[in-house]
Structures are given as structure tokens and as C-alpha cells.
Amino acid sequence: MTDQVESAHPFYAYCQNALQEIEQQGRYRRFTSLSRRSASYPVYDKGNLEQQEKPVVVWSSNDYLGMGVEPEVMNAAINAVKEYGAGAGGTRNIAGTHPLHVALEAELADLHGKEAGLLFVSGYVSNQASLQTILASMSGGWITFSDQQNHASMIAGIKGAKQSECIIFKHNDLKDLEEKLAAAPASAPKLIAFESVYSMDGDIADIGAICALARKYNALTYLDEVHAVGLYGEQGGGVSQRDNVADQVDIIEGTLAKGFGVHGGYVTAKKEIIEYLRLAASGFIFTTALPPSIVAPALASVRLARQQNWRREKLFERVHTFQKKLKEAGIPYLQTESHIVPVMIGDAERCKEISKRLLEEFSLYATPINYPTVPKGTERLRLTPNPFHTDAMMDDMVQALKSLL
Ligand SMILES: *Cc1c(COP(=O)(O)O)cnc(C)c1O
Asked: Disulfide: which of 65, 180, 321, 382 matches 311 by Cβ 3.0-4.6 Å?
């Protein structure tokens, strides 16, 4: 690259300035290179492929149940590669639909008690593509009532439907939601978009109450269960299953990449909605299908997770034990009813510094969560214990935090 090429278009200079600004604001994200060891999750190797450093205990993985290192799940991937090759070779419409896709969609629909399911290449795409497609339908005029803390992927879908209107309601605030529903024109098609477990504060929506409001004001309900699938409900069908309200939700969206430990996203709903999305959603139609080497382990994982209640029991036992240890040590954390344990720091620089020192001095990894992901003054380390964090690992983390806070 010569200077001449870099200066040819003003965008080069724009990028240089923007990067400097992000750095000055302390928002420059740098990757930490970590490789998971399947045989000893949650222990990872730190460093690059050429130079391995000390092993690190990771406290920030979203593979909440360890499904991604389950031998049966890994073997399903290995066997699928051997049998079917590495990639999918096409979109679902162009030589990309495998019997495994169909089986996984049926499994997910069954998990949520819905008629049908549709796979997407990620949870992000499932939200973005489904919401954008729904909100561009019926010649526009939709009004979306969107929880203030909804994930970026839902916001992308809502904003992407340019003819539709978006009204943001206060986080998990039923009174505010009802006021806003009541104030909207009765004739407009309405949709309420929300999550079950919110991943930063670990708080949980009252799904039944939101669905009751939806019925009262004739709104469609769209629920993101990304941080709950696999973990809540007697078969891991999410909070809607735990609360026995899945049948009241029109569209349930989830990921195969967090609690199920593999990769991919999906929606489940009544047949006509799923068929419409299959035929109309650009983000479904025009992208190569998930490869069988991903779908096979995902299917194995969902089936196993549905049966293996011990994983959910063990996860919550570990979470409660860890919370108890933090409490005894006087470390400030958000007491939530979910599996997410935010340790509050309250300052962006300090949060980054503590995370860095945990890694360098104690070989412990916990991601710092700063503005704009959370409000200023509520910066935190987001810890996610899993069934394989031992008491000794917990004690190490508690001791390290005690010495750093
Ligand atoms: C991670 C996440 C997604 C996206 O899921 P991926 O499968 O990682 O693309 C969607 N919604 C929420 C709330 C998330 O946290």
C-alpha cells in the first residue's frame, strides 16, 4: 500500500480519524486470542498458534451448558463432514436443503410447541431477516413496540423495515408498554418485540403478562429466547416453556450457538408465518445454507439437551454456589434470577484494567462490558459460570477479584 492509494478517497482519512477517536474514548476493542480445549472446558489456551502461553480459565463463554464439547455432539460434526463434506454447496433453494435441515427444523418446532421452524445462518440473521420481512408486509403501516434493551439484531430488523414505525418502551415496564399500545391507532398492525433473559443484567421478562397485553391490543408477539434456550424449561425450551406460555407467543426465536453450543439461528411459529418467511425473507433465501457439519451436531445437541436435565440442574447449582462465594467475599454483583452473574465495577477504564489484570496475573478471563453495551456508571465483568466450573476455579476467581477490587 502506498500513501497515494490510501489518500485517494476521503474514506481512508475518515477511517483513520474514527479509529483515533474510538481509541481516545477508550472504546477500542482488541481481541484476546483464546483456543478452547474440548477435553478440559472451560480451560483455554491463550496466545496464537505459533506461541502458546499459560492455560486460562474462561468465565465469559456463552456455551452455557458445555454442549459444544460434548463428545456425541462433536462426533456428529466429524461424521457429517466425512459423509457429506465440509460445506453446504448452495442456498436452501439451490441444492442446499439436506434432510438434516428438515429434521432440525422439526425438532426446534417441537421444542417450542410450534407447528414449524426455519433455520438461519445465525441468530443475528434470524432476528434481522424475520423482523424486517414481517414489518415490510401488509403494505406497511406496522408499529413495533420494542423493549429498550432489545439486542442489536432485532433493532437492525426493525430499522430495516423503513415504512414501519418503532416505539421503544421502557425495559420490562408493562405499564409503559400498555400506555404506548393504548395510544397507538387501533387499526395499525402491531408487533411487540422482546427478549426473555436479557444478557447484560440477567433479568427476565414477564412473558405471560406481555402476551396478555398483546391480546388486549391485538399485537403480534416476537420473543428472542437466545439466552434461555437449552437452559430454562423442563426440556430447555426457554423461559416461555418454564412459564408455560409458549403457546401464547406468536414467534419464538433462538440460537443454536449459545446454550446449544454449536452455530445457527432459527424462528418457530405457525405454519403460515414460517412459510411466508421462507418464501419472502431475503436473509433466508440469498445465503448459503448452514452446512450439514453444523446442522448434525446442532441436532444432536438439541436432542441431548432436551433429555439431560442434569445439565440445567448442575448449571444453576454452580451459579448459586458462585453467587454465595461472591457474597461471602463481599464482592458486589447483581443478584439476578438468571444464570448471568454481573460483577459491578462502575468505571470503564477500571473495568478494562481489572479484566486485563485478571488475565495477565491470574490467568482468568472475564470480558469487560462497557458503554454503549451498558449505561455509563454500570460497567461490569459479565461472568457466566457453567456446569464445568469447579469449586477451586470459583475460589480462584473470588480471590483474584478480592485482591483487585
Ligand atoms: C447473541 C444474540 C443474538 C444473536 O445470536 P447469534 O447466533 O450469536 O447470531 C440474538 N439475540 C440476542 C439477545 C443475543 O444475545
From this structure: 65
